Task: inverse folding
């Protein structure tokens, strides 16, 4: 699926569908691809990331999911990015090699977060080994300090990275440090794609010059977010704000109830009609009370 087009617009961080007894459920992925493309207008996916419970899956499961997304996305999706980050370097390398072999359009990796890199050079050294297993496809760094605890600034990381990692193509930036993000744009906008990953703040990141976004809500609020991107491109800030406030209204409501990957699975199930199943331990399924309240809130969104 080598795609010559640069990644832009929205990318859905895919959910990993599971059966009621907790096995990965590959059988609904074809339907999931069609839903994203036809109902949400989203043609890029980021597989096995945070929302996909990638770090809670076995290597074998991650490979099966990657294959299914690439196969079912053929001629339908523009980019299938596989997250290959892992705590163990050999495992991350194996996943990178596999993603390249099955025809993924790119790979991404987080910083290892148990034994953490303490400076930029060790992080780059780790990422370089991973990326070198897939020399023919782009590599994206997945920056998510609230979950990894690795706070090395991306501005610093990007300085000189292309010499170390020739396939380096961009960053998925899941943090609220918009100064760091803006510096990345200022210094590298021509060279790299800078994808923002905090959905409720996307409009601010667009103002800073984001190339696009990767996030969980584009699974079920993709259409509204595409309209926000259009409004922003036309410089209709008032309309763009209305769409951003719409995402904000929903998220601010569910945050108060307790919101994470488990709840995202429930929201996607009632929005798309595709059964996403339960999350894997230590996450627990969303409660019936949450589902009822979130459903009513979703139905009340006016835009
Ligand atoms: C921590 C986490 O899962 N972040 C996601 C992507 O990075 C976002 O898409 C959030 O789910 C979303 O912004 C809601 O907070
Ligand atoms: C949001 C995102 O990109 C992820 O779930 O990995």
Result:
């Amino acid at each position: 699926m080598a795609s010559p087009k640069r990644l832009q617009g929205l990318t859905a961080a895919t959910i990993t569908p599971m059966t009621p007894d907790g096995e990965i459920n590959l059988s609904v992925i074809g339907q999931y691809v069609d839903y994203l493309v036809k109902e949400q207008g989203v043609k890029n996916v980021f597989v096995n990331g945070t929302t996909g419970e990638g770090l809670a899956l076995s290597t074998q499961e991650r490979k099966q999911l990657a294959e299914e997304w690439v196969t079912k996305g053929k001629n339908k999706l523009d980019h299938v990015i596989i997250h290959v980050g892992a705590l163990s370097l050999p495992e991350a390398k194996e996943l990178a090699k596999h993603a390249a072999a099955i025809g993924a359009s790119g790979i991404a990796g987080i910083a290892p977060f148990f034994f953490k890199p303490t400076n930029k050079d060790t992080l780059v050294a780790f990422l370089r080994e991973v990326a070198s297993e897939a020399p023919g496809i782009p590599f994206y760094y997945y920056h998510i300090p609230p979950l990894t605890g690795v706070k090395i600034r991306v501005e610093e990381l990007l300085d000189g990275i292309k010499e170390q990692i020739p396939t380096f193509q961009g960053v998925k930036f899941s943090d609220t440090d918009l100064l760091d993000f803006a510096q990345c744009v200022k210094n590298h906008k021509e060279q790299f794609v800078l994808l923002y990953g905090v959905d409720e703040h996307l409009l601010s990141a667009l103002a800073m010059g984001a190339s696009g976004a990767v996030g969980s809500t584009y699974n079920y609020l993709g259409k509204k977010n595409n309209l926000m991107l259009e409004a922003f491109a036309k410089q209709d800030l008032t309309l763009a704000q209305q769409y951003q406030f719409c995402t904000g209204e929903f998220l601010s409501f569910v945050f108060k109830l307790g919101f994470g990957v488990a709840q995202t699975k429930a929201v996607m199930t009632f929005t798309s009609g595709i059964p996403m199943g339960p999350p894997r331990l230590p996450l627990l399924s969303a409660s019936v009370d949450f589902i009822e309240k979130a459903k009513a809130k979703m139905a009340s969104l006016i835009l």
